[in-house]
Design a protein that fits this description.
seven-stranded parallel β-sheet; Rossmann fold; single chain; alpha/beta; 15 strands
Amino acid sequence: MKADHLDRAVLITGGCGFIGCNLADALARRGQKVVAFDNLSRTGVRENAQWLKSRHGAQVSIMTGDVRDAISVIQAVRGAKAILHLAAQVAVTDSLEDPIEDFEINARGTLNVLEAVRVHNHSAPMIFASTNKVYGRLVPDSGIKQVGRRRVPVDMHLADGVAEDFPLDFYSPYGCSKGTADQYVRDYARVYGMNTAVLRMSCIYGPRQFGTEDQGWLAHFMLRSILGEPLTIFGDGLQVRDALHVSDAAAAWIAVLENIESVRGRVFNLGGGTENAISLLELIDQIASMRGAAPSLSFDRWRPGDQPWYVSRCEALKSAVGWQPRIPLRQGLQSLLEWLEARFSPATSPVELRL
């Protein structure tokens, strides 16, 4: 990076969200100044902001703003050393209920960030949080078979996971809005010579994740067990995802940022890979093993946009920046469970930061 950028802060949009606050923490622990730009609208974000301030003080600044507001975005971007763009509408279900808002946040909001960088801070790296949903449903029902308590693809070419050259097939308004942003970010490197890169993330999990039925399913399943509340599985529970601990995800973001000149314009999958793949029912089994009890289950029909199977192939990222996941799934799940049990025990009543 240029010398005049060395003392500037890294801007993280959505910086008080689950991944954003963990990334801000990782950067701050390395001595980097951070600005967490967030509209503070989602559950847990004010608590995450308070956590960041308690750990890092003035080294992390909280800036209230919305990526739909182009003026606020320009003000945040203008002096940034780099921009890590995670602010988003994150749930397929919410996109189905309000596709216009989903588009405004994910597609238009990303375009606002890109334009602010292009016009006001052209040399700054900009990395975008995309999603595995850009690949769509991936395989038809006839291309999936059951093995034990999970589904696997019949096509052996997918045995090692989905690579970045797999055809895009946006499915659901959420897939469309994130996919649109994904392609804009890639193209701004090609057309405008900007230092952009895309990370298509799979299931990221870990401490500070306030999981809900619509987003953050590993934390949601565990939390239902902790609270003794019933859990609804949409589909048959055999659907598979690869999971990646948030500390490994943060390490990947930082590695891409540090190597932006060699990876600019590229798209990478970011997930746990085949060794960290798990089905919904297998997670229920893991929770029962760790806690001695599993949540009570009911089943409902599949939801639009649900993938029966998705596992990332991350060889491109490993080759480009030397990154690889380090936390095994069982160990990572234990860290999430311990955080959730501590956070949601009856005696815990955190006071949220007033911003």
